[in-house]
Amino acid sequence: MKSRRSLTQNRTRNGFTLIEVLLVLIILVIIGALASRVFIGTQDRASIKAATSNLSIVSGAINEYRLEMNKYPSKLADLWEKPSDQAMAEKWGSKYLEKMKPDPWGNEYQYLAEGKKNSDKYDLWSNGPDGKSGTEDDIGNWE
After folding, report:
1. Helix (H) or strand (E) holding 4
2. Nearest partner of 87 among 113, 72, 68, 111, judged by Cα
3. Which of 130, 129, 136, 107 is nearest to 47 (CA)?
4. Could you tell me the sign of the dihedral formed by the alpha carbons of 23, 26, 32, 35, in that order?
């Protein structure tokens, strides 16, 4: 009888062992790490595409300004602020662009009317994810 009773107890055992719980936790951590890498890469690519798109829009406004004013703006604010000089104010059609929001990383877009990378026109760029100008991750209107 005793052996029959111990067989019944073994078959009706409830719960999980510590090893089983740890194994499941390890598997979940590995899956979570893999999934987070995929999503982090997607966010980075989306931010870069957003910055590139914004640069294209601003470039269009700068080129329109140049056509009407016969020069590139000296600063980006010239695209939304009417000039105080009367002669320039008469040429100025209207806002070429609404006041710019920061880039996807929260930094201001950079602009040089006399470009260093584009010597024949202007340089327009985002400092990129690291927020520092002149590094490899800068996103600009140059090749």
Report:
1. helix 2-11
2. 68
3. 129
4. negative
Residue ranges per domain, the chain?
45-136
What does the pLDDT look like over 114-136, one tens digit per residue? Answer: 889 988 899 999 999 999 999 99
CB–CB of 141/58 below 8 Å?
A: no
CATH fold for the domain made of 45-136: Glycoprotein, Type 4 Pilin (3.30.700)
Inter-residue contact 127 to 143 (CB < 8 Å): no
How many angstroms separate the CA atoms of 97 and 100, rounded? 8
- What size, in residues, is the chain? 143
* Dihedral sign for Cα atoms in the order 104, 109, 115, 121: positive
User: Over the stretch 7-46, which tens digit does the pLDDT of each residue have?
Assistant: 555 555 678 888 999 999 999 999 988 888 777 778 888 9
